[in-house]
Amino acid sequence: MKTGRGVGPTDAAGGPARHLPVMLAEVLAHLAPKDAGRYVDGTFGAGGYTRAILAAADCRVLAIDRDPTAIAGGAGLVLDAGGRLTLVQDRFSELGTVAQQMDFAPLDGVVLDIGVSSMQLDEAERGFSFRRDGPLDMRMANDGPSAADLVADLDEVELAHVIWTLGEERFSRQIAKAIVAARAESPITRTLQLADIVSKVVWAKPGEMHPATRTFQALRIAVNEELQELVGALAAAERVLKPGGRLVVVTFHSLEDRIVKNFLSHRSKAPSASRHMPQAEGPAPSFRLVAKGMVEAGSEEVAGNPRARSAKLRAAERTEAPAHPDGDLAGLLPADLSQRRGRRRN
Ligand SMILES: C[S@@+](CC[C@H](N)C(=O)[O-])C[C@H]1O[C@@H](n2cnc3c(N)ncnc32)[C@H](O)[C@@H]1O
Fold this sequence. Notes:
By secondary structure, the protein is an alpha/beta fold. Among the domains are: 1-21 and 31-53 and 97-122, no CATH class; 132-224, DNA polymerase, domain 1. It contains 15 helices and eight strands. It has helices spanning 24-31, 48-56, 68-73, 75-80, 95-101, 118-122, 147-153, 156-167, 172-185, 191-199, 213-223, 226-240, 254-268, 299-304, 337-340; strands spanning 38-41, 60-65, 85-89, 107-113, 241-251, 287-289, 295-296, 312-318. Strands 1, 2, 3, 4, 5, 6, 7 and 8 form an eight-stranded mixed beta sheet that branches. The chain is globular, with a radius of gyration of 21 Å. It binds S-adenosylmethionine. S-adenosylmethionine (SAM) is lined by residues 12, 19, 21, 43, 45-49, 64-67, 70, 91-92, 113, 115-117, 140, 229.
C-alpha cells in the first residue's frame, strides 16, 4: 500500500473537521484500500473516511452524500485530491447506478457510515435537535415531506406506529395522543415545541437520556427513509463490488445493525443440503464475512468521542457468485413504512 498524493490525513473537507470520523482505523483496516482501486464512500459527510482512503493508497474515490451542504463542503478536498475524488449529491441506495453512469464500476470497496453528521445535528436550522430550537425539518436533502409534515399529517395510529417501530419508544401511544391533542390547538412547527410535548408524557430521571430522543430518532428515520435507503445500498453494493471487493458498514443503533447483520448473514451462508436432498438449493454465498460478528470502538476512542460508544462495524468481502435476487430483501425491514408514508389524516 502506498501513500496517495496530495491528501494529508488530518483535517477534513472544506476546513477544520467538526465531525470526528468514527472507527476510522477499523474502517481502513477492513476496507484495505489498494493502489489503483475504486472505492465508493456512500456517506461523505465531512470527508473523514474519504480523505483517509485517499491517503492510504493511490486509489480513486467516488463519494456520495444526499446533503447538498456536505457536497459543497467537500470542494476543497476535491481540489486537494488532484483528480482522484469525485463528489456526487445523491442517495446511497443509488450508488450502483451512479458508479455505473460514471464508468466507475466494478468497485474494490464500499463504505457506509450511517446516520447524521455532527454538522447536521448541531445546526439548529436543520431541525434535528431536541435541544436547540429550529424548524421541525430533519430532511437531509432538503426535499420531500419534513418532520413537521409527518407530525401534521399522520393519524394517531400511524404516529404511534412510527414512534414505536423506528424509535423503539415504549410510550409511543401516549406520545402520539399528546401530539394529536397539541396539533388540534396549534400546528407543531418547531423542534422545542415537539420536545416539550413529548417531555410531558415521557418520564425520565435527571441524568437519563432526553425524553424526546427516541421520538426524534423515529421521525428522522421516517423522514429520510433511512432503513429503506440502507437496504437499497446493501443490495447495490452486492451488485457493483468485484470479487474480493470489500463492504464496510458502520451503524449507530440496533435497527440499522440488525439489517446489516441479517443481510450479511443471509448472503454469506452456503445453501443448505441434506441426506434427503444432497443437491444444495439456493444461490451460492455472495459475501464472505471479513469481521466475524461486529467490531466496536476501543475505549480510548469512546472516551474522546461519545458518538463512538454505540458504533458497530460489520465487514464482508464479495465472492465470485452472482448477486442474489432482490426479492428476498423486503424481510430486512421492521415494517412496511413505505405504504404508511403519504397517507393523510381525514
Ligand atoms: C455520519 S455522517 C458521515 C461522516 C463521514 N464518514 C466523515 O467521516 O466525515 C453521515 C452522512 O451520510 C449522509 N447520508 C445519510 N443518509 C444518506 C443517504 N441515504 N444517501 C446519501 N447520504 C446519506 C448524511 O447526509 C451525512 O452527511
